[in-house]
Amino acid sequence: MSVITHSLNISMTGDSNIENLTEHIQRILAESGLQGGILTLFVQHTTASVMIIEDEPGIRADTKNFWNRTIPADPQLEHNTRNAGEDNGHSHLRGQLQGPSLTIPFVNGALTLGTWQQVVLIDFDTRPRTRNLVLQLMGE
What we know:
Distance between the termini: 5 Å
Strand content: 35-45%
Number of helices: 4
Order of helices and strands: EEHEEHHHEEEE
C-alpha cells in the first residue's frame, strides 16, 4: 500500500467564502497513479473547514446565510474579549462544528463522489488569508 501526501495552499477572502477544490483533488489523484483507496483532506486552521456540497450559487448563498444565523458574529464572545484585537470567535465556533477533514474513497483512479457532490473549502475567518491543506492518498 502506498501513502502519498500533498499540500494545497488556497488564497481565501474570509466571511464564509467557499472555494471548490474538486478539480485540484482529482488532478492530484490522477497524477498519483493510484487506482483504489482512500483520500483524506485536512485543513490546518481552526477557522476554516472542508465539506461536500452541491456547489451552485443558491447553495453557496444558503450556506453563508445558515452560518450567519446559526453562529452570528458577536464582539462579546469570550475569545474576542480575552484576546486583544480578535473579532473571530464566531469563526472558531463554526470551524469546530463543521470540522477540519473529509475522507473520500476512490475506485479505478476516480473519486466516488455522487453526481452533484463537490469538495469545497469554507473560510469562516474575518479577513483574507492563505489556507493550508494536507491531502493524503492511501491505496494501490
